[in-house]
Amino acid sequence: MAVALLLAVAGLTACTDAAPSEKEAAKPAASASSSAGAPAPPSCDARASWRPTKGLQIPAGSYMQTIRDRGRLIVGMSQDTLLFSSRDPFTAKIEGFDVDMGREIAKAIFGDPDRLEIRVIPRSERINAVNRGTVDLAINTMTTNCTRWQQVDFSTVYYEAGQRLLVGKDSPATRIEDLGGQRVCAAAGSTSLENIGRVNVDPPPLAVARTDFGACLVAFQLGEVQAISTDDTILAGLAAQDPYAKVVGPRFTEEPYAMAIAGTHRDFTEFVNAVLERMRADGTWAKIHDRWLGDSGPAPKPPAARYR
Amino acid sequence: MTAVQAPPRAALTRLAGMRHTSPGRLQLLLVVLLVLTTLAGLVTGLTAASAAAGTTDLRDRAQPLLAEAETVWSSLADADATAAQAFISGGLEPPELTSRYDEKLTAAATALTSAARRVPEDSAGAEAIRAISAGLGDYTALVATARALNRQGKPVGAAYLSTASQLNRGTLQPQAQALFQQARREASAGYTDARSSWWLILLLVVLVGLGVALIATQAHLSRTTRRTFNVPLVAATALTVLLALVCAGLFAHQRSGLESAERAGSTPAQALAETRMLVLRERADEALTLAARAGRGALEDDFTLLRKRFVVSGEEFDEVRGLATTAAERHDAYLALHDEIRKLDDNGDYEAAVKLAVSPETRSAFDGVTTVLDEALTGRRAAFDDEIRSAGLGLGALAVLGPLLALMIGVLAALGLRARLEEYR
After folding, report:
1. Is A174 helix (H, G, I), strand (E, B) or coil?
2. Which residues of chain A have a CB within 8 Å of the CB of B156?
3. Cα distance between residue A79 and residue B158, in whole Å
4. What is the pLDDT of residue B152?
5. Per the CB < 8 Å rule, is B295 touching A87?
6. What distance in Å separates the CA atoms of residue B67 and residue B118, rounded to the nearest whole number?
7. Which residue ranges make up each domain of chain B?
8. CATH no. for A48-159+256-307
């Protein structure tokens, strides 16, 4: 119990820029409880990325050339986020919306979408992995926000998600505010974990951190937590694996997904944005959406690119 | 009675008075001889009993406990490695891996039950056994759930497996290691108990004292009487020498048996068990690194440490030189394959790395190492059994016959002196 609380507090960096709805942003308790000297929330337009200047060209000396010389694109992903990047138990291959995004980038560099190496990284390690150069970029249902922009660069937004709640089939809870004092799981290093701590209810829900959302589902099924709260997209994948779980409540945050790239590789960020431009325009984005998320209805308009 | 009740000074005066008369001197000698024979009988019996009990405890409890603790630990590591390999293979897990996993869990559970009978209820060892037993149930349930989910094609099965693996490596194996170390301390204390060195020193002092007293008595008698030899006392002296020789022979044999059991049995067996543990952990690290799919990480660093610790050239392997050399050669062959696996994975060919890691080639290379270590280990355990059985020979008989011999010495001494005392009536 004490450990869970510690983890919960550790997860509460004073970051209120993930565009949570107004009432959470207005709540002072969250920043008060994180006395670890976190900086004041930076303000920026987290959705705005670098405008492509050279299109899909790969100039000599660019980071894309480095990747091309290596012979493969290395992407940091998860292996248990169903529909986005999860391991198919039958084939042992990692597949999903995020994987297909990575394949499109590999195709733009090599002309071959299979020139892709997937490295599984814990959510709490994504920024480190990008900055250390362990991976070229992280495509991992990752929310772009201003705190993170201080450490890495992001591409333009490629998917709009929002945080919701997964509870047991017979739970009376309909929103996260109904779970005051109860244990709610999210992955360590995710914005979801931070958001659970900011829910404006007394007592607040106890945020329980696990390595990834698959581990959260294990904890939920073993009765160690009463609920899981994260992006609706991830919850849909979890609920699909457990007929005794249901996703409830409104989206109480906005989670715009973007790809994380080291700040030193601005040319690569521009290139990735150019690839995303093309995918939005030529229908590739819609095709990938239909392939993985088609059950949730017809493909919406892809999120519009914003540039700084 | 009066001597006991009298004040110490009066008793001393009376004893001093006895020294001055001939019958008094003889009575004193008789008392000294009877006290010494009683002590000799007592100490011979207790020393033999202590050495016998120590040897039996070493043979029937401490050493089997060590073997069982090792089985628990290595089976857990093996089950973890096997489950991870089955996972990375993808699809339905290969039946040979399923049966290997089941076999290892059964071995761990059996050894645990048996080890529980060999440790005191409130010891640290018992605590570890209870913790492992409780955790083993959870572990088995998590792996079973992971398998069932895997069969249904649900990716969360992977999360169950990694939760199980964390339980195994983070909780169960450290407990098993604690049990193993506890057993190792008990085995080493068992050797000290079996040697019963303090008892032996006491026995030596008492027997020498008895011999000196008998010879001094006879010297006194031949000086004060016309008879050169007192036949019962000569017989008592001969029996004392016999008792000393029997004790010397039996305890020397026991000590040499213990020494061989340690040199040819315990020491190499322990070194072999630890080496096998290293190899199993290497294989688990390799499979878990691939299962995590995160490239070279902490587990590969652990592998690098473990491979450096694989050294079978020390003197503790002298008894199994041939097999140890074979094990080292096979281990090198396995390491070559491991390096190949890492190279494939590091260069981005994850699927080829997995394919090589679970290939019959790698599996047989790895099994080659554990098989030869197992063979050597079985041989060393048998050697221990032989030596320790031989070390315990005769000690039980000595515990009974030693006091009987001492009784006979006492009776003969009393007979020899009583004949002389009669002369003063």
Report:
1. coil
2. 80, 82, 214, 217-218, 238, 241-242
3. 9
4. 85
5. no
6. 12
7. 20-422
8. 3.40.190.10
Asked if pLDDT for residue A5 goes beyond 50, the answer is no
Q: Which of B156, B344, B351 is the mutation pick for testing A, counting most A CBs within 10 A?
A: B156
- Across the range B40-44, mean pLDDT stands at 94
For the record, the structure tokens of A288 come out as: 């990938």
- Tens of pLDDT, residue by residue over A116-164, are 999 999 888 999 999 999 999 999 999 999 999 999 999 999 999 999 9
Which strand ranges, in their side-by-side order, compose the sheet holding A153-154? A116-120, A73-77, A137-138, A260-261, A153-154
SS3 A244: coil
Domain boundaries, chain A: 48-159+256-307, 163-253
Q: List b or e across B242-279, with b for residues whose CB sees 16 or more CB atoms inside 10 angstroms.
A: ebbebbeebbebbbebbebbbbbbbbbbbbbbbbbbbb
Task: Quote the tokens at residue B422.
Answer: 């009669």
Residue A6 CA to its chain's centroid (Å): 23
- Determine contact: A242 vs chain B, CB below 8 A: yes
Q: Are A206 and A182 in contact (CB under 8 A)?
A: yes
Average pLDDT for residues B145-170, to the nearest whole number?
88
Residue B288, pLDDT score: 87
Confidence of residue B349 (pLDDT cuts 50, 70, 90): confident
Domain A48-159+256-307 and domain A163-253, same fold? Reply is yes
pLDDT classification of B1: cutoffs 50, 70, 90 = very low
Residue of B293, B286, B88, B90 whose CA lies nearest to A212: B293
Chain segment A249-304, per-residue pLDDT in tens: 999 999 999 999 999 999 999 999 999 999 999 999 999 999 998 887 788 899 99
Amino acid at site B338: H
Q: Please give the structure tokens belonging to residue A238.
A: 């979890």
Tens digits of residue pLDDT in A29-54: 333 333 344 455 678 899 999 999 99
At A116 the pLDDT is 93
ipTM over 0.95: no
CB-based burial label for A7 (10 Å; 0-12, 13-18, 19+): middle
- pLDDT above 60 for A12: no
Please report the sign of the dihedral spanned by the C-alpha atoms of residue A273, residue A112, residue B346, residue B161: positive
On chain A, the residues whose CB falls within 8 A of the CB of B153 are 88-90
pLDDT tens track for A55-90:
999 999 999 999 999 999 999 998 888 899 988 888
Q: How far apart are CA B306 and CA B314, in angstroms?
A: 17
CA dihedral of B136, B140, B141, B145, whole degrees rounded to 10: 150
pTM of the model: 0.80
CA distance B73 to B70: 5
Q: What is the CATH number of domain A163-253?
A: 3.40.190.10
Given an 8 Å threshold on Cβ–Cβ distance, is B294 in contact with A72? no
Residue in A74, A82, A134 closest to B155 by CB: A82
Check: CB of residue B77 under 8 Å from CB of residue B213: no
- Taking contacts as CB-CB distances below 8 angstroms, the residues of chain A near B149 are 89, 241
Tell me the C-alpha distance between A70 and B144, whole Å.
41
Residue whose entry in the numeric block shows the structure tokens 């008592």? B236
Asked if A89 lies within 8 A of B163 by C-beta distance, the reply is no
Helical H runs in B90-230?
95-116, 124-151, 156-167, 173-195, 197-224
